[in-house]
Write a structure and sequence with these properties.
This protein has two domains: 245 residues, 6 Propeller (Neuraminidase), CATH 2.120.10.30; 255 residues, Rossmann fold. 15% of the residues lie in helices and 35% in strands. The protein contains ten helices and 35 strands. Strands 28-29-31-30-32-33-34-35 form an eight-stranded mixed sheet, sandwiched between helices. A hairpin with a 1-residue loop joins strand 21 and strand 22. Helix 4 crosses helix 5. The longest helix is centred in the last third of the chain and has 19 residues. It is globular, with a radius of gyration of 24 Å.
Length: 617
Amino acid sequence: MQPYGTWTSPFHAADIASSAPRIDGAKFVGDEIWWGESVPAEGGRVTVRSSNGNVLLPEPWNARSRVHEYGGGAWTADADGTLFFVNAKDQRVYRMLPGAEPEPLTPAGPNHGGLRLQHGRLFAVREDLTGDRHRRAIVEIPTDGDDDDDVQEIIATSGFVAHPALSPDGTRIAWVQWSDRHMPWQLALLHVAQLGGDTVASTPTRAALQPEWISDTELVYADDPTGRWQLQSITLDGLERTSGPDPIAPADADTGYGLWVLGNRWYQPLSDGRIVAVRTNGSDEIRLIERDGSNKRLEVPASAHVSVDDVSGTRVLLSGGGAGVNAGLWCVDVNSGAVERVRGGAAVDEAWMPAATRVTFDGPNGPVHAFDYAPANPHATAPAEELPPYIVFVHGGPTAHVSGGASAAIAYYTSRGIGVLDVNYGGSTGYGRAYRERLDGQWGIAEVDDVLAAARGLAAAGKADPERIAIRGGSAGGWTVLSALVRGGVFAAGISRYGVTDLRMLAEDTHDFEKYYLDGLVGPLPEAEQVYIDRSPLTHVERINVPVLLLQGEDDRVVPPSQSEAIRDGLAARGVDHEYVLYPGEGHGFRRAETIIDALERELTFLGRVFGFAPEL
């Protein structure tokens, strides 16, 4: 018999830092498959690899975009093996011919991202943050490398743009656009323009995502007019819409979620008009949709945050995670059903990493969805009378979600006898617009209600020791951690990674993309200033009376270190047990191997100290 928390585990922090690859897009390139991959051992640098074993983008080059701060779509390639990428250091687009050194295609200054190579033409989202009026644009970048000043601006706005899509005949371009007063999941419009013309045609949409041309006249995109992101089809004669929008294979699930990064692809049309699409209802499933709307589920391992990265003939590239596999990349033939594991994606040992259990709790605002990962270790048994300690995970965003995928980071805890409850609180995507809008005006209240209800429900079901439940989250999840600790009475400890502590400070410091995010989550300033004060954990730091671990990236521009340091100073002034760690070279989210290792080991040691057990690192 071994007490919970002290079990011997094969999962060590150093292994987890490099265990599952972080895939950043994938493409068919000639007879090969290429993909982007983050390398924690190289400071989180994103390289590009190929299925023949080559590293195509060597150090010090780093394919990473800063457009909209969260980036995405930082590389693409043509069939001949020419790589195009955004270099993290200067945000310029480069071309790298096979066997040659990278050469710039764009001038210094603006950020670039969302690269799309279509019909031999390279498009990107460009962001210019110089001057008083910031601008975003969709641009076409010449691929010959002759003149980096010959970049053509197609459409520009003071708001935001994403997902440029060129028609097969090369005459029109479609894209998604939203104002700086909205987030894309609140209101985003579908636009189409004639290349070289001045007229823009708009289709009434609520939250449009990812337009794709099926033919010269048919355009498909995702939107949620009925409360779920569904595929829609319209027919165009030039810029005039002649029919639609018509739903394609509607279902009680979402094809799409929060447009935080520019590289996500929730569906891809095949050359014969069929569509491979992700459907999310908590977890993901992949559907093959026929032209008549009939569809079937593809039996693939991927079921968590799946991206449909590319298609070639009847083959499709899927990246993401799964309930029984590590994160990875797969090539699937939709006709034969054959599944090839390209990178990562290895099956997990269910004795050590059992599949997550879907659970729902009753909360004051309605049902609360979560995934329960109970302690699991085939070589350890706890005393019969002991209940396990638990840690409640709170995702960031807050307009995001978790999907119940296998995770070595979760097994790091569960294999040692610490349960994990991963909560999709109200405001999360993956359950429709109504669930997502539960957080409107209620951030700091509704999601806190939900995580408290989930923790209480877990304890009431006899699954967790009510005296040993901690809460952990990053960014917006860190805000919820601290807000829940202010409420008190449920959690015995909290771990905040780069968490928000002061709403007014966040409103002043945050970047363009989220400048008005708080208007919807809390209220507009200055009218709602008192609400900002009342909701902020920093205002009520005297109510926090349990140990707190604060982890922060020094270079974080989304939630600056001043946020964590303010709550640290408040805890220190009252003598509350706390630890604060500042990681040099880290931004919003930890990418370096040494940071990932240190953070995990600190969290485990912290929980052991607070809950009274000596964990094995």
